[in-house]
Structures are given as structure tokens and as C-alpha cells.
Amino acid sequence: MNTVIHQRQSDPSAELQQSDLPPLLQRIYASRGIAQLAELELQLAKLPSPDLLKGMAQAVDRLELALQQQQKVLIVGDFDADGATSTSVATLALQSMGLQQVDFLVPNRFEYGYGLTPEIVEVAANAPDKPDLLVTVDNGISSVQGVARAQELGMEVLVTDHHLPGEELPDAVAIVNPNQPGCEFPSKNLAGVGVIFYVMLALRARLRLQGWFAEQAIAEPNLASLLDLVALGTIADVVTLDHPNRILVQQGLARIRAGHSRPGIQALLNVAGRPANKISSVDLGFVLGPRLNAAGRLDDMSLGIDCLLAPHEGLAAELATQLDDLNRDRKSIEQSMQKQAMATLSQLALDEADMPWGLTLYQADWHQGVIGILASRIKDKYHRPVIIFADEDSEAGTIKGSARSIQGLHIRDALDTVAARNPGLLNKFGGHAMAAGMSLAKNRFAEFQTAFDEVVREQLSNDDLQAKINSDGALAANELSMPMAEMLQSAGPWGQNFPEPSFDGEFYLVNQRIVGDRHLKFTVSLEEGSQQLIDAIAFNVDTLQWPNYRAERLHLSYKLDVNEFRGRRSLQLLVNHIDVL
């Protein structure tokens, strides 16, 4: 796979240039679309009003009625980190406002699949305490049949979601989704947890206006106490960090760093060995998110939600340990599957030029909950769209696939084209630009392989198959410093489409060694023989190529990092690509 380093180019606006921001930060912010200083203000008061969300008034009306009549409310979530945090926010907020009968239900991905299906509605209706109102979080916008079935069974549905709607909307009592037609909310990038947080803000405002809290003799809840959950779900769901999302994440991180997080989040940090006062958005995505997601991938996301809802440290620690164990199991399963996948690809003995542009692999015993991660790993290695399949229903002869794409190919639209050209080939499919899921008959897998590869070849070019690393340019010698690394850390939060600053440049290699079996620890300098040495590390390198004792000069793509070891802080380059010059 060829890799090209592309330098971001953008001139700072006049407002940024006239500010007190260092020139490097001006350039970084400008390349991420920031033109006004107001976009860098991250106080809660800068959030858009909840009233701008279409359907909000109707949603609040229905929730207010549920509170007044003390109805039974069931939160129906999703089995990922966004769904878990959304469920937790809805449950905790409604309880704090005086709702006495609120529970949650998360469909098991292996039995019911995604969303408010008619089958999961039946489960809710047959519960000992049949709910009066179902509230979906992080799902529901496509649950036309599920909402209809709930109505038939005497239950109303309030949909809160952030996914793109289909041609038909469910006939719910209210829908709150910034992506539904006619919604004028300025951010279309809220995660599911952001949407339900906004609903709870609007509900609290209504109840305050009605004198509810005084009437019920309960304290008005501080919903900011839920922002740690909102930040976690927002980062873990990899939604674009536009201005409102950066506010939500920054405020949530501030609460965690100040020691005011939920016991469950603190417990997850403890099992991961991460100090709360140093946590970053990267930690939310790569440390906490996977541990929470492990429950939904391998077992039941209720375990993750129970951890987030845990009222005290003891229970939270016990549940976090179980989640950490599940994550270790997930890693082991993933590594085994990855070895099998790589062995399959090596047996094909294909050069990259001969490899399918749309890569599809199937193995009957691969774990359904991990195929998406495997697809992502192989996509990163070969830089092409990848779909990994495993058995869905062996008796029915169906297989389930999880797809991951690259820039240039909208994977859900590509599957739509495959389905249109090959009627009946796909049993069902859905997804977004970069990820999708589908199922089909096992005996038609080869047919699908060919059809998918044909569509990918039509929609991509050879240039699209080259991996591109974006860089914020080179750093001068005086910028390769601890103060600069600390400034960049505090200049975030960084995340999807607002990426952490990354740089590139040429260095002399001073020494090198492998640590932890697969990681390259090395030292570089800007000039040959210079005494100004800089530590660097590259994770998961090819140990057949490294150490490389012929290498003298390197072109590196890297991030500035502060390495903390035994109480000592030092500058370190986190290297994600190495070219030997």
C-alpha cells in the first residue's frame, strides 16, 4: 500500500491573525474550518437552544404527562457506547426529575438486531410492568414497523435519534432528530447521547416554568452532572466534533478531570490505569469506549449501562472489572480472527495490484460482535473497502456482514447499487458513508463478492487506494518542545473531523530497539550529530523490517506527546508512519 503525506493548507482569517493565538495554533485551527474566535468558546452558554430541534415541544409535552401521571417509561437503547450513555442519561435525568417508574431495555444484538423492532416491542409488552411510553435513544428513526406494533399493543413511542431517516418516518408521538426533514437545529452532528441530553434540558426548563420542582419538593437537578456521559458517548460514536459537540465534550472532560464523574466512569479509568485529572478526548475514544463496547459486542450491553448507572464506587468497580475482562476477551478473539484473515489473504498469493478493490472475507465461526473491528483493521492495512462476514443463522443458511469504507466510497450507497442490480441478493442492509451492515444467503456469497468488487471499481480510482496521511506541516526546532506539546493538548478537544494536530519532517536516526514485542522505541535528532535528542515511539511495527540498522535518515509523520514515566515527564513523538530516506 502506497502512503502519501498530504499537508493541510489554509490561511488563518483576519480575526484569527489579529488574536493572541500563537501562529501555529492559528494555522491548525484554520485548517479545521475555524474562522471566528467565537467558535473556540466552549462554555455551556454557547450551546444552541434546545427549542431549535424539531419535535422538541411535542416530546416535552409527552414526558411532562408521564411525570404528572407517574406512568411507566421504558428507555430502549442501542448496544454500543453511544446507546449505553444515552440510556444512562435518559434514566438518570428522568429519575432526578421525579419519575418513579423508569427502566431500560437494550436489544441483544445476536437475538434481535438493531433498534426498536417489532420483536423487541413484544418483549417490552410482555414484561411484568408493561410500559405506557417507550423512549428510543440512539435509534428509532427507521423503526416504522416497531412503532406501529407498539401502538397496536397500547404503548406510545417517543423517538430520539441522530441517524439519517429513510423515506418513511415512524408514526411516533414525537420525533427529535436533528437530521429529520425540516429540523433547523444548526448542528447535524449530535450523537444519540447529545440528542437525549438536549431533550432533558428542554424538559427541565418546562418543569421549572411550571413550578414542578417546588410542587414536588424535590431539588432541581443539575444536568451538567451528566456531561461526563455525554462526552464519552459523543467521542466513542466518532461523530464530527463541530462547535456544539466540542462544547459538550470539553465540559464533560472538565468534570472528569475535576473528580466529578460518575462512579462507573471513574471505575473504568481505574481498571485502565488512567488518572482522571489527565484524561483527554483520545482516552474517551480508545480507553473507555472499547471497554464499554465490549459488553455489547460479546455479551449484553446491560452490563455496561449498569456500570454507568452504579450509584457507588464498590459496585462500579466490580462491574468495570467485568467489562475490562470482556475487553481482554474481545482483543483475544479479534487477534485470532485477524491472524486467520491474514492467513487467508496470504494463501491467495495476490499482489496488491491483483487484490479485489472491494475486499470481502467470510469464515463461519468468526464472532458476529467483532467482525466490524476486523473489517476496520484490514481496511487500515490495505486501504480499500472491506466487508467481513460470519454466520448469522446456520439453519436458515444466512451470513451477516460488517463493512468499513475509505474516503471516496459511500458504503451504504454502494450496497444500494449492488442490491438494485442484483434483486434478492441482499436480504437487508443499512448504514452510513463509512460503515454498514448486511445479511445474505451463504450460497450467494461468491456472487456478492463479484458484484461488490465491480461497484467499488466503478466508484473509486487508483489514487483513492493510496492511503493519505494529513499533516499540519513541519515543526521548527524550537517548536519541538514540552510547552508546545502541552499547549496542543489543551487546545482541543480533538476528535472526528477536528483531528489532533499531526506533523511531518525529516530526522536523523540515533538509536532503535523493539519493546513490548511489536513497538519501535527510537531516538532522533534534527541534525546529524546534534545533542538535541528526541524520543519517539511507533506502535505495532513490522518486526521483519524493524529494527533497520541500515536506516540513517527518516521522514516521519507524528504527533507531539508528553510521556509520563515514574513521575518524569518528557517530550515524545508518537509516530504513525516512517519512510526511510
Low-confidence stretches: none
Main sheet record: 5 strands, parallel
Overall geometry:
globular
Integer-rounded radius of gyration: 25 Å
Number of strands: 17
Percent of residues in helical segments? 25-40%
The spatial strand order of the largest sheet comes to 3-2-4-5-6
The count of helical stretches stands at 18
Structural class of the helices, strands and pairings?
A: alpha/beta
Quick overview of this protein structure:
With 581 residues, this protein is of the alpha/beta class. It has helices at residues 14-17, 23-31, 56-68, 81-96, 118-125, 144-152, 192-209, 212-216, 227-236, 243-257, 263-272, 281-298, 302-309, 313-348, 371-382, 411-421, 445-459, 482-490, and strands spanning 3-7, 73-76, 102-105, 133-136, 156-160, 174-176, 359-362, 386-393, 398-404, 426-431, 435-441, 467-471, 503-515, 519-525, 534-538, 553-565, 568-580.
